[in-house]
Amino acid sequence: MIKRILWFVIGTAVGVYAVTRLKKRAQVLAPESLQASADKMASAIRHFGDEVRAGMAERETELRDALGIDTAAHDREGDR
User: Which top-level group of life is the source organism from (predicted)?
Assistant: First the structure.
């Protein structure tokens, strides 16, 4: 009899634990949460792209200065 009660209590505790974990997981995977995560990811990707472009422009300027290339002549070629 005591064994059955013990197993019943253990089963109930595991069931309650599983339900609470599943509710938390469902809350994390809810559409609002997914949208917030997607917005954060998009923002991070945009920021990374901006940083890469800024670094590329800075490095291009350094290389042009080091090689003595006239930036005005390059700008005129790019306008064509």
Answer: Bacteria
State which amino acid sits at residue 15.
Answer: G
- Cα gap 41→59, rounded to integer Å: 27
Cβ contacts of 74 within 8 Å, gap of 6 or more: 64
Q: What is the pTM of this model?
A: 0.50
Residue pLDDT, tens place only, 63-74: 999 999 886 665
The Cβ-side half-sphere exposure at 3, using a 13 Å CA radius, reads 0
Q: Which residue has the tokens 């469902």?
A: 26
Cα distances from 40 to residues 20, 28, 35, in angstroms, run: 27, 15, 9
